[in-house]
Specification:
eight-stranded antiparallel β-sheet; alpha+beta; 14% helix; Glucose Permease (Domain IIA); four-stranded antiparallel β-sheet; 219 residues
Length: 219
């Protein structure tokens, strides 16, 4: 498998099977680190390893202790979930992202060198269990992974709904309204946008998805 490097700093070896009392539980009751600690200074950009959709975002929880910073999870179309911990996310749940796109920054850590704790889950529903995790050392980390971007938004799956208006369908009907949202923002709690089987509700998510699509495809 290939994935885009989440940081442009040197990558060490993962500590997937390193015993960790706070780590992911194995079927025998033991717990393991189950991740790669990728070191970079606080504030350093963190990029998505794959094209996919943001499925969880947790804001920063501070700069001290073992559980510092926040969390960002990106799910690839095939189902793998890339979990980045100790970060300050810059995306919202439901937002589509491209491989190599900035999704967060590294959180500073007062108790040691700042880093991203990277886990790879086989599926979101499998949760934080060793049997549901893949060793990051088995991944080929290459910028070539960005050569297969998230599919473009053309086609009938694109829908845009704003209160008091009929639903706009397809790229041709939606593009004008999307450009207006990108320029002027959106204050419509009943707004929604759908695309390729996904739906985002509320003004904040609609505005975020709209700006992403326009920025990514240069429209």
């Amino acid at each position: 498998m290939q994935a885009y490097p989440i940081l442009d700093t040197p990558r060490g070896r993962s500590a997937f099977r390193y015993p960790d009392p706070d780590g992911a539980p194995d079927d025998d009751g033991r717990r393991y680190h189950a991740a790669l600690d990728w070191f970079a200074p606080g504030g350093h950009p963190v990029r998505s390893a794959v094209a996919g959709v943001v499925v969880e975002v947790k804001p920063s929880r501070g700069t001290t202790g073992q559980v510092f910073g926040g969390t960002c999870k990106v799910r690839a179309p095939a189902g793998l979930v890339y979990v980045m911990r100790h970060v300050a996310p810059h995306v919202v749940v439901g937002q589509p992202v491209a491989a190599g796109q900035r999704v967060a920054i590294v959180s500073p850590w007062a108790d040691g060198p700042a880093h991203v704790h990277l886990e790879i889950w086989r599926e979101l529903a499998g949760g934080y269990r060793l049997a549901n995790m893949i060793d990051p050392d088995t991944i080929t980390w290459t910028t070539a992974a960005a050569a297969a971007p998230w599919p473009p938004p053309f086609g009938g799956s694109l829908r845009l709904g704003l209160p008091g208006h009929p639903v706009w369908r397809g790229w041709d009907e939606c593009i004008g309204r999307m450009r207006n949202i990108a320029r002027n923002g959106l204050e419509a709690p009943g707004a929604f946008i759908t695309w390729r089987g996904h739906r985002w509700d509320g003004a904040r998510q609609v505005a975020g998805v709209t700006r992403h699509l326009l920025d990514k495809y240069g429209l």
